[in-house]
Design goal:
- The chain starts with 26 loop residues before the first helix and ends with a helix.
- The protein has two domains: 234 residues, 3-Layer(aba) Sandwich (Rossmann fold), CATH 3.40.50.300; 182 residues, no CATH class.
- The protein is built from 22 helices and nine strands.
- The protein is of the alpha/beta class.
- Helix 15 packs parallel to helix 20 and helix 16 packs antiparallel against helix 20.
- The radius of gyration is 26 Å and the shape is elongated.
- The protein has a seven-stranded parallel β-sheet, with helices on both faces. Strands 2-3 form a two-stranded antiparallel ribbon.
- The longest helix is centred in the last third of the chain and has 16 residues.
- Strand 2 and strand 3 form a beta hairpin.
- This is Helicase C-terminal domain-containing protein.
């Protein structure tokens, strides 16, 4: 059991369990089910422009962030004014503020104290006595805020926290959820968590989409549309309100990132440098919290392999059926039957062995389904004699065949653990084309 399946070091904890997750509950569902406290999230317009700061290894240059935040009394005054505006009673705050550096945390604590809001800074260099007594002082009301850096992200339980300040951009979704989670613990007398997120002009590589997307109750609408309409699709008892300028910053950032192939290729080109990870389809999607559907949703999709070749991070290739296979990638990314995927992976590796290991009729039905997934028309109209010949076509396209297998493995890792075998019930393969829609067939599987 883990609260952080997406690890900061990039290691995949599911590899020890054959890539299977028995059960999963994400933040919005946990709030809906009363397992976490509801939140009210205010996006405050920040006057600090971060768009020209350097971006290194997946995030802002920390030294540059420290320079623009530490000693910035105008911004610190904005924090105080925002607290008085959005918090009902500052004297009842039990809060934590996440800062970029030790100097930033110390500056914020000093500024708050000067403005009558008792606070301390806590960091790795703090004395053991200060660290040991900080929690008690906060929960007893002796202080209103603890300003931290690289502390209290995880492993600390202070259920009473009712206010969280994001005083620096958090590039990692995992860290963002960990920090937000410090205030989502249930506690007697706590009605909700108040979050103040200070949003300024961001670097083009910063992603607001994934941060706000993680808060939505359902992925039925795009994050862009949610932000534009005022975040209507939130967990029960929660809301997100963005000030006018903050809203424009968020919308502009998402507008540039979503469906922008140039940004996508830039991320591919600098992926290993930014993340320290090998560039694979699975690693790329995991790091940027993208789905296969998002990657291939363009009206004229391009394969991940082709994008890699275009920016020179992989060798160029010539697969004879590239156009047809690429067009089918969106459909392949929706396959969600464990048994079907296992068969397809086995068939693409060794067709004759896969056919021996599966009842012939069932194997032919699965091949025919995959044929229609790719071609969308009968076998004979595509110039093939059998569905085996049609699906075998993939093997003469080695680069894209490898990408298709990667997609199937990613799909497999996202299927629920329980997958009982079922009887397809088709009298013959003609029933598949003439009687059943593709969605119905996938539903049966």
């Amino acid at each position: 059991m883990t609260a952080t399946p997406e690890r900061l070091d990039g290691k995949d904890v599911t590899e020890y369990f054959d890539g299977r997750i028995a059960a999963e509950i994400r933040l919005p569902e946990a709030v809906d089910r009363g397992l976490l406290a509801p939140f009210q999230y205010f996006g405050v317009s920040d006057n600090v422009d971060l768009s020209q700061l350097h971006w290194r290894r997946g995030g802002y240059d920390v030294a540059e962030l420290n320079n623009v935040y530490t000693g910035n009394r105008q911004r610190a005054d904005l924090v105080v004014r925002s607290l008085n505006r959005y918090v009902t009673d500052v004297d009842k705050v039990i809060g934590i503020g996440f800062c970029v550096s030790v100097l930033h945390a110390q500056f914020m604590a000093e500024f708050m104290n000067l403005n009558g809001i008792s606070s301390i800074a806590l960091h790795a260099k703090s004395s053991s006595k200060d660290r040991a007594t900080a929690k008690k002082r906060l929960t007893h009301g002796d202080i209103r805020f603890i300003f931290v850096v690289d502390l209290y992200n995880e492993g600390v339980d202070i259920p009473e926290i009712n206010t969280v300040l994001f005083l620096r951009p958090t590039e990692s979704l995992t860290v963002f959820l960990q920090q937000l989670g410090r205030g989502l613990r249930l506690s007697e007398g706590k009605e909700c968590l108040t979050v103040l997120d200070f949003i300024g002009q961001s670097h083009k590589k910063y992603r607001f989409e994934e941060k706000f997307g993680a808060l939505l109750a359902s992925p039925r609408r795009s994050v862009y549309q949610e932000a534009k309409d005022g975040f209507l699709n939130m967990p029960r008892g929660c809301f997100v309100q963005l000030e006018k300028q903050a809203r424009e910053y968020v919308l502009d950032n998402i507008r540039q990132a979503v469906g922008n192939r140039k940004i996508l290729t830039n991320r591919i080109q600098s992926f290993t440098e930014d993340t320290g990870r090998d560039l694979t389809l699975a690693n790329f999607l995991q790091y940027y919290h993208m789905s296969l559907r998002e990657l291939y949703r363009d009206q004229n999709p391009v394969s991940f392999s082709r994008l890699c070749a275009r920016v020179g991070v992989r060798a160029s290739f010539t697969d004879p059926d590239e156009a047809i296979i690429t067009k089918a990638l969106t459909k392949i990314s929706t396959i969600n039957s464990r048994r079907w995927i296992h068969f397809l992976l086995a068939y693409l590796e060794n067709p004759s062995r896969a056919m021996r290991d599966m009842p012939r009729t069932l194997a032919e039905q699965m091949l025919l389904m995959f044929h229609y997934t790719i071609w969308q028309k009968p076998v004979n109209r595509c110039g093939f004699r059998t569905s085996e010949e049609s699906v075998g076509m993939l093997r003469r396209n080695p680069v894209l065949c490898s990408e298709v297998c990667d997609i199937l493995r990613i799909n497999l890792s996202q299927i629920d653990f329980v997958d009982e075998p079922v009887d397809l019930g088709f009298e013959n393969t003609l029933d598949l084309h003439c009687t059943y829609s593709r969605d119905q067939v996938l539903g049966v599987l």
